[in-house]
# Entry
Amino acid sequence: MLPRMSDPVPPKPPGPPRVQLQIDEPVAQGTYTNIVLINHTENEFVFDFAYLQPSNPIAKVRSRIISSPRHTKRFLNALQKNLERYEERFGKIELSGEEEPTVH
# Structure
């Protein structure tokens, strides 16, 4: 049976809540890194973002992020989508053989 115009419209299911970010000024300035080391256990991923200076073999860790496997996968998917949008707008990002990820 088709709905009549007088039938109430069922409410839409609620979407995800809108998140408002609060950011302190030092964090808002950001931290430049040019290398990330990734480790994991069964329950978490650990990302050590570091800066490797030219001609210095020691990379200084500037930030460590610890994340659940589920959140890490959501992050990966969001990163992939954002890279696709970036390349659509600005062109393909080319990697040389030296820039391929090193996996230990």
Observations:
- The mean pLDDT is 89.
- Strands lie at 35-40, 45-51, 60-67.
- Residues 25-94 form one domain.
